[in-house]
Amino acid sequence: MYSLQDLRDVIVALCDSPIVISPWLAYIRYGVDFESDVYETMRDEAHEFSLLHWNESYDINVFGTLPVSPRLPENAFYETAISTAYYYSYNQGKSTIIHQDAAKQAIWSLTTFIEQHGFDKFVSTYAYVTAYENYVALNYYGEMRELDFVFGKLHRPWITYTLRDELMFMHVLGVVEVFIKNNTRYIRLTDLGKQRFFEIQHFLDEVGFLSLRSNLLRISSFSELNDYDNIFDVIFPMGKKIRKQLLDLAIPEPGMKVLEFGCGSGSFTLESGLADTVGPKGLVLGIDPAPGLLAQANYKVKTAHKPWVQFVHGIAEHLPYADNTFDLVIGFASLHLTNWNKAIRELRRVLKKGGLFASAHSIHHQVDLPFFTEWFEPIFKLPGTTLNSSSMPLEKEIPNALQVGFSDLQSFIQMAPTVYAHPEYVVRFLIQSVDLYANRMLQLPWGERQKLFDHLIDRGQEILEKYSNEELTVDYPVQFVLARKVE
Ligand SMILES: C[S@@+](CC[C@H](N)C(=O)[O-])C[C@H]1O[C@@H](n2cnc3c(N)ncnc32)[C@H](O)[C@@H]1O
User: Fold this and answer.
1) 332 Cβ inside 6 Å of ligand 1
2) What pLDDT digit, counting tens, does each position of 246-299 carry?
3) Mutate to test the pocket of ligand 1, among 218, 334, 431 (most ligand atoms within 8 A of CB)
4) What is the CATH class of 228-485?
């Protein structure tokens, strides 16, 4: 039976692939819809693929001496295929319906992944990653009604099958126990189960899966900020000024090829003057993973008639451009949301020799003002973790990453006000999208996460009545870094 260590390479490859294992991480909030026949096609594909490719030796690799769950391979294939297809559909046109092309593309990506890594290893990976969500829920609730668990009511409501097999495995492995209270069957983690949960969590953190999980949730929230520009201006009244300041430091020139990473709704490129400075003889490409924000950027560029500007879907860690392409790569308020070491290496790769890297981003900063601790107490009450998935870089981290392959590093910090006077915006932007407390939020199962956001908006209304606008304005550090790719 494969251990987590045996699957290390597969999980790392999964984090680097377009494959999404859970519908939750594929931006699904309101259930999955399919274009006509797509549902049947995907179910059939999953069934046929499993019949054709599963073999007896895989039962030993995946289940060892545990009872075999004959539906697991098919469920693993199906759930991953629909999550990936949904992810494609959403990214390609913000569609919440899985269309035919996305389904085909997803099945192709998944079968290619399985060919490379083995069906048994894929199914084991799926089992560990989804079991993680079971552990999170049991650890959070302490005890759960067995039926709530089995139907995934509070932690995996998207399943189209029951979790009876998974519960049985957990039982056989001694990680859960069943007990009866008020004539109802309940389940809870045993001491061994709690230990196993921490082991799995630390492993998934170490291999990068938890960061990926937080990032996918974060991007889906950004994508739903329909009124992004307004929210940003209310929370960061100095935002426009700082965008301009970054631009003035980078000194773009007419005719340059520029990449803006994390372009969001296109405000930096279009409204701060980057596009106009570069002009029609140059090229400005904006890249961002949030389809909803890209739609806003594309709407603006269409009405602005600036054909030398394009906004495309993507992440800073994987750029679809050749080495040595850009004169300038620049990002405003986005580097802290990436896996910055990876992103900096990738951004350096696409930069021409002597080209400039420029970024202004947030760094870690502890706020312990009374209104803040009072408002966000439910988050601070969640147990802290020592996991890597906290969201903000420490002051030295990004300048240190620029020591390799860059010269002429400039780095400084400037304080800028953040206004906490609009509870809904603050929660949707800072808590849900920036995910300031990713490290603690990942302790929450699906249902509790959304509930907590709503609760924090209500608490914010009470905070507004108690504190003045001045008291709700906090200075937060913005780090500027500029460096040249070595010749
Ligand atoms: C605070 S917004 C800043 C947007 C824009 N630069 C501006 O000036 O308003 C952060 C942006 O980073 C994007 N982002 C998150 N993860 C990213 C990644 N891995 N690569 C590139 N952009 C990312 C988000 O989707 C979001 O649009």
Assistant:
1) yes
2) 999 999 999 999 999 999 999 999 999 999 999 999 999 999 999 999 999 999
3) 334
4) alpha beta
What CA–CA distance (Å, rounded) separates 395 from 247? 22
**Which of residues 23 and 42 earns the better pLDDT score?**
42
What is the Å distance from ligand 1's center to 151 Cα? 36
Do residues 329 and 261 make contact, with C-beta atoms less than 8 angstroms apart?
A: yes
Closest ligand 1 atom to residue 434 Cα is: 1
Distance from Cα 337 to the centre of ligand 1, integer Å: 7
Q: Is residue 178 classed as helix, strand or coil in its secondary structure?
A: strand
**CATH 3.40.50.150, the chain: domain bounds:** 228-485
Atom of ligand 1 nearest to the CA of 215: 16
User: What's the number of CA atoms in the CB half-sphere (13 Å) around residue 291?
Assistant: 15
Amino acid at the residue 193: G
